[in-house]
Write a structure and sequence with these properties.
Length: 183
């Protein structure tokens, strides 16, 4: 089988042997793989840095002068870039001592878009399917005097997690109590 394709790394047209072939040669595949890994690594490092500093950034955002390290995180620029900008007079800086350069935050804000701080992911609580914490459909039906078909409808509509064990369907009590408390 020969399929005309364009190499995703060097953009050279080639004949692929399978529909999933993406590169013209092993060398291109390897190079593309390395590039991807490098990008992934950079992305990860950036995220780690942001997560590490996310609390601090809020505080930094209120200060007139910030450190080089803080500028690096807030605006995603390198130390070298920053020093170049200072040299050119594009960013106001004060020197408080060795390695204690402070730069004017507003100058940087005018030049760069500050990076978005990832909001801490709200971890969704795992549904508790322990027996004492669950109702069966019959129990819900009896307790809240509701028809099983209505209950299934409510479960579906509210995307309530359920667990099926044999012929029983278990539903977390908290979820059901919450819904029937509002009716
Ligand atoms: Zn290639």
């Amino acid at each position: 089988m020969k399929i005309p394709r364009v190499c995703e790394h060097c953009s050279k047209p080639f004949e692929a042997k399978t529909v999933t072939t993406r590169f013209c040669s092993l060398s291109c595949a390897n190079k593309a793989g390395k590039e991807r890994k490098k990008l992934e690594k950079e992305q990860k490092e950036k995220e780690t840095l942001l997560n590490k500093y996310s609390d601090k950034i809020a505080e930094v955002q209120t200060r007139e002068f910030i450190s080089v390290a803080e500028a690096k995180v807030m605006f995603g620029i390198s130390k070298d870039t920053l020093h170049r900008l200072i040299k050119r007079g594009m960013v106001t800086s004060v020197n408080l001592g060795v390695r204690l350069t402070r730069v004017k935050r507003l100058d940087l804000e005018a030049l760069f878009t500050s990076v978005e701080i990832p909001s801490k992911k709200e971890e969704k609580a795992k549904p508790n399917f322990e027996v004492g914490n669950c109702y069966t459909i019959t129990e819900i039906s009896e307790k809240f005097n509701a028809d099983p078909s209505t209950i299934y409808h409510i479960i579906k509509r509210n995307k309530i997690p359920t667990k099926k064990v044999g012929s029983f369907v278990y539903v977390p009590k908290v979820e059901i109590d919450k819904i029937f408390a509002n009716t």
